[in-house]
Amino acid sequence: MENAAPNPRSSGSLHRFANPGRFLRLTESWLPWLSGAALVVLGIGIVWGLWLAPRDWQQGETVRIMFVHVPMAWLAMGGYMGLAILSIMSLIWRHPLADLTARELSPIGAAVTALCLLTGSLWGKPMWGTWWVWDARLTSVLVLFFLWLGHAALVRAFDDPERGARMGAILALVGVVNVPIVKFSVDWWNTLHQPASVTRLDAPGMHVDILYPLLWCTLGFTLAFMAVTLAATRAAVMERRVRALQMAAARRADASPGQMRSVEA
């Protein structure tokens, strides 16, 4: 890892972050600010959404689940797109940090998608009268959850980390076709799930008293997602550096008796 050099075909911007030491130095200064911003923005969004925002005239207090569910759904899809980009960087440019970041991202993405499914079930029970229905939106999100889990398991299933990363990258790129299915399933098929309310081209389909705290929660959860991913990647880089130092020390220890015998001879 330490001696890996970026492929010369990669761009200059990729070169800048390819060195693990430079990555650690940059993120050491970024991570506290990013984590602090995530806490502040998310704190404002949660307080605003769960306590200060008005109850919905139709859904009542149940609508507050949306302030967690919707950000989790966006992060599940957006995070998977990030995983696909990392996979392209790994397969084409052999970026030395792309594999590590992807490896650490998939458990986080699986957790986010699980929260999306859980909060969706909690929201669906009072609204639809059931915890689960096999409609297009819910089923495609469940498939997305299994893709996250599959990537997390596949990259750890091989003794050779490079081979595992390669197989995981291929799975991520194949699975990316599910993301537009998740996004547009409510438009393509007749489902119980409500259509898009925020990303409509004409105007958002919700009152600003609910829209604004939702956007704050989404920004806060997004910053937290980025901070956790960066922290996990930093930990993976440092763990690999420590392992490399231990292996080098073990090789030196194994070589020392042989050198002493040659000196004695």
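^ that was protein a. below is b, sequence first then the tokens
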Amino acid sequence: MNRIAADLHFLPCLEFFAAVADAEEILLFPKDRYQRQSYLNRTKIRLANKVETLSIPIQGRRPRLPMDQIKIDHTQNWQAVHLRGLQSGYGKAPFFEFYFPYFEGIFESAEENLWNFNLSLLTMCLKLLRWPARLTVFDGEQIPSDVRDIRAQIMPGRPFLDRSYYFPSPYTQLFGLDFEPNLSVLDLLFCVGPESDQILRDSIKKH
């Protein structure tokens, strides 16, 4: 069985999905510490004039807490900002009307816990990609020897081409002539729909 240990990102980038494309089981670790400047609470989408980062505000200034203890700051109107950004960026995308309601419902759930929120989104992404990978919440300390560990490797501050997971397979995006690689998987789903699976598999970096 192909098993991969991964971080639970917010609406993960295409590199994440290229890295786990062949996984039969994805292990997730609620007791791993929250890391600032990571994809745990941020993702990137494409708007008409720029690439925009969507960030989930969290409670506390520098929480060095396990992921499952991180609370979302609902004093800020971030859900409305994110949903408006998605509608502005992708409202005219070919598959927006089909996929958007699945995510809108999760955003409007008022979930207080970042871990639960990200888990709901990742579960939905895998369902829409029709990937059979099983998500396993792993509370143990010793990772089984047959598990490939990619935690803390896919980070915003390091170029994805420096890593061994993702080499962009371009697809038709909504804005601009230049292809923007490695955005949130939502960019791919909204733009190409059922072709997303094949594009991700074509994007797996060859060694």
